[in-house]
Protein 1
Amino acid sequence: MTTVATAVGEIIGPLSVGPIAHGGHCIARHEGRVIFVRHTIPGETVMVRITDDSHERYWRGDAVEVLDAAPGRVEPPCPIAGLCGGCDFQHIAPAVQRELKTTVVRELLHQFAHLDSDVTVERVGTDDSGQDWRTRMRYGVHDGKVGLHVHRSADLVGLAPQGCLIAEKAGRDPKMLDSLAGQVHGDELIVATAASGVCVIDSGRTLMGEAVVTEQVGTHSFRARADGFWQPHRLAPGLLTSQMLLALDPRPGEHALDLYCGVGVFAAALDDAGCRVRGIEMDGPAIRLARTNVPRAQFVAGRVDRVLSRGRHRADLVVLDPPRAGAGKRAVDQIAGLRPRRIAYVACDPAALARDLASFARHDYSVTNIKGFDLFPMTHHVECVATLEPTR
């Protein structure tokens, strides 16, 4: 039997750490090979344990010893930060996290959309600790214990005594979660901390609270499934709604499309502005809730590109908030074909946003404004809102 040599587990270095890259890692090089290294900062010198050597052109690794630290390095507040795969940036001061995210967003916009933007990722709210913001959590369960997944692995690491620090306090008590773990049929617990209380769900079964929770955005109450999509940062729905309205500047009587509309948060704001609103969302339960949340709007269940390809649609304004993979060329083609006067694109992945902006540019739509918000502190994720208008 032939044994295949592997570098996994080997510690190499010292390595000089280069620029930040999209995905929560920095770029280093060893003997001509690129290594994507987690738990470090550009400019540092580190020792690296190889965690993945399955790709010929690059490897992955974790910094296990910092020989020369960069400004901005801090002691992670959570004791499992280097083990859990959820927080990429706990070793970095929050202000420096935003600087790195700004670099990534600008580079991706330039690389994929040929845009030289001065966008800056902005702090959200008054608390700059990066903690106690996440209202939706997914935990793994094994042998009656609740934990969080190791990066790029099905393995679990047990929770710290104070629970996951980025989760809202009301729903993160490890004792409460472990007390429910014995009732779990599957291998996952979903915890939603909503305005109406905490809900815990296992494989579609409600173990605590109500399966349909109530959330508050401005003067509106929204019913949403606890295991369905809701912006995880507690300030995100209100912030993104206000940014959407600034981007679109809606006028009474205009026709507005809310694409990937979820339970109708943006639709409600556009309806308040006097628009005739139609929402499209492929999640049937979300659409049913949207119809009760915003009764004056019309809602259609189905894939956005397929619904737009059928029938006649009018759109003076479009807001889209697609999943992480982005809208994609077909949906962009359909949206641009409606010739809305303004488009607000809400994006949780800057690479997907940049690719879609390039597609819009081929339809003579240009970006007139773009803003970035640190709605996922302690992680590499970032939210952007881009405004597009036709050039002719």
Protein 2
Amino acid sequence: MKHFSNVVGFDDAPFARDHAGPVAVVGAVYAGLRFDGVLMGEIQKDGTDAADVLATLITESRFADHIRLILLQGIALGGFNVVDVFSLHQRTGLPVLVVSRVRPDMEAIKKALLASIPEGKKKWAVIERLGQMEEVADIFVQRVDISMEQARQVIKRFAVHSRIPEPIRAAHLIAGALANGQSRGNP
């Protein structure tokens, strides 16, 4: 079984509900349980650029040759900027594991996307293609090019201080500090 020792976890910075424009995204790079570095960029709130931005952050970083897996805190960053995980996988050649503490209400997401979000139909198609979230190790995941057993091992290995893997937890804390001057809360 493939062993994912070097991973990057991404999360977005918090923003006001009425915010328009760019939203910071942070990637926390880990080598095993050692925090190895940070990737930072911006995506458009409710935009369509998340996969492109994340792929560029990874492939143009000094960590590009070492990262073996991408972890995401949910399928959407910056509001409804749905990460096209299939494009992200294709552009980087890396498996993608989407993680959530709770099972999202897919009908509510679909309704919101189709009713009021630019390119909502295209975004919903990505989510629909990815399929329902699966429960593993007390959280929910969606995955591209990684088996359920591999996902279980990744969660088991990297979920040290909470149910969420450390790379995502660290990205969440850093992104929060960027936006608010200090970190708080759990992803």
Protein 3
Amino acid sequence: MTRAEYPWLLPSDLAGPAGPGRRRRRTVRDWLVDTVAFAGAAFIGLLAAEASRRADNAPAAVLADQLLGATACCALWFRRRWPVAVALAVCAVDAVAPAASGAVLVALFGVAVRVPFRRLSLVGGAALVSGVVQAFVRPDPEMSTLAAITLGVVLLLLVTGWGMLVRSRRQLVAALRERAVRAEAEAELRAERAQRAAREAIAREMHDVLAHRLTLLSVHAGALEFRPGAPPAEVARAAGVVRDSAHEALQDLREIIGVLRAPGDPGDGDRPQPTLATLTALISESRAAGMRVALDDELTGPADAVPAATGRAVYRVAQEGLTNARKHAPGTETAVTLRGRAGEGVTVEVRNSPPTRPVPRVPGSGQGLIGLAERAALAGGRLSHGADPDGGFTVRAWLPWPA
């Protein structure tokens, strides 16, 4: 239950901070509780006043007892704002007016709920003293002094224990709520870090590819510069290569805009980049590691026709899906499916059958999928993942493949 869902059911003590210079407003639940407490204190006060009337006290004493009891009950409406002061005032009245006994019990309960034990012990001692003084000043004609004192002590202890139990429960709920908020914030931070790491990895890959294209462009442009007398056909062919390389470099540059490269990384621009053509090698490595992997390639057209950025994304999706299957469902069958054609996009799906035995949760699970979703979004595609009805797990991504 949260305050946003049911604000009128929560006590004001659990409703969160009230803001600087402002008191917490009573909720509907607070009004109901205060009304019931007032009614209960008034009922006990009426019983005590009736006992005082039957004890042949003077009418003036009975009237004063009733007025003091009513005043003590009315003071209970301020116990949320001044719990200790109201409780001490009611205890002072209870020493000479038995009609205030119910108000003492309610006020002591409110103090036990709201203040630490040191201040509670002060109020409890005052309530105990007032009960003993009342037993001698206004004795009950139907009960001995010792019995009256014993009954009063038992009632005070019961009310105090109940209030301390409620206070402990509220503190536990507040601690659990704070822990849940902190855990949610940490999860969001981990997700942001995973997204940032995925962006940085994509930026590094795209930077390497862009550097390669620019290098080719520079080489062919240099050949044209140093061979001005080359045959027209050779010049035209070199110019076409320069044009195509410049166009591809421009496409890569558009993709890398907005993605920052992680500072301080070592230069690794010469490393080979995975493509769709290297997917079969990944499947072979997984099989060599003991996995049962089936590849269903339904692509229309050669793998080399798929754009390099899309091929890398497909490779990474398949790689992460196989890694998750190996960690969370070892020994099961895994199927990798490729579908698509130019103009319609590429769909890659990795599905593993349900695990045959319980597998413990691996720390950090889910971060790779967050990175994959970020990679697919940056490539202009989308990614979905989730458990199947039979207990398996499927990772599916669609990526654009221009015509």
